[in-house]
Write a structure and sequence with these properties.
two-stranded antiparallel ribbon; 6-stranded parallel beta sheet; binds flavin mononucleotide; 8 strands; 175 residues; alpha/beta; Rossmann fold; 21% strand
Length: 175
């Protein structure tokens, strides 16, 4: 059984996309899926000073441990996030910063994991996808070479949705 964590940055259209993905994958064998929205964790903004303060007072917020455990215990991650200003949204960057600092090995949450990048953005989200692919690969993830892209003007075609997820599913079990 593989544990698939579907991570939405927001509680809005990217969460809707995450739920659609979960509904599709629910029927697949050997998968256990869970959707989370990063907004719900209300993580503080990462700064070295704040980290030092948490460490010296042994007061790491519970939600940092919670998201770290969810990510570290997953086998597969599907990220659904908007593009912001031609790049990765701050909530994703912030979450990754905390996880990399809350684990013994900074790559622990990401190394050798199958990842799919999806976006519901104003435009085509390509800058986010390119930039985030680079980051996830740097963290050791195995990033699938196709993505699901929803724009303000265009929904994802049903054929495309099914084809990307079916291929990704096969890819998860290919090794
Ligand atoms: C600060 C900010 C910057 C944005 N920059 C971009 C951008 O560079 N490219 C783009 O396609 N959309 C951009 N958008 C639009 C969002 O991608 C779009 O509203 C998206 O649907 C929001 O996702 P959500 O519905 O899950 O909240 C931006 C939105 C905000 C709030």
């Amino acid at each position: 059984m593989k544990k698939v964590l579907i991570i939405s940055s927001t509680r809005n259209s990217n969460l809707d996309l995450s739920k659609d993905i979960k509904n599709y994958l629910m029927d697949k064998d050997e998968l256990e899926t869970e959707v989370i929205a990063l907004e719900d964790f209300e993580l503080p903004l990462y700064t070295p000073t704040l980290e030092e303060q948490f460490k010296s007072t042994e007061s790491f917020p519970k939600n940092i441990s919670k998201i770290k455990d969810l990510i570290c215990s997953s086998d597969v991650m599907i990220w659904c996030s908007p593009e912001y200003n031609g790049g990765i949204s701050p909530i994703v960057t912030n979450t990754i910063a905390w996880i990399s600092r809350a684990t013994d090995d900074w790559k622990e949450g990401f190394k050798d994991k199958h990842c799919l990048i999806c976006t519901s953005s104003g435009g085509n989200g390509k800058n986010f996808i390119k930039g985030f692919e680079m980051q996830l690969k740097y963290l050791g993830s195995n990033v699938f070479d196709r993505s699901l892209i929803k724009t303000k003007a265009k929904n994802i075609e049903e054929f495309e949705f099914t084809s990307v997820l079916t291929d990704f599913y096969k890819n998860i079990f290919s090794e």
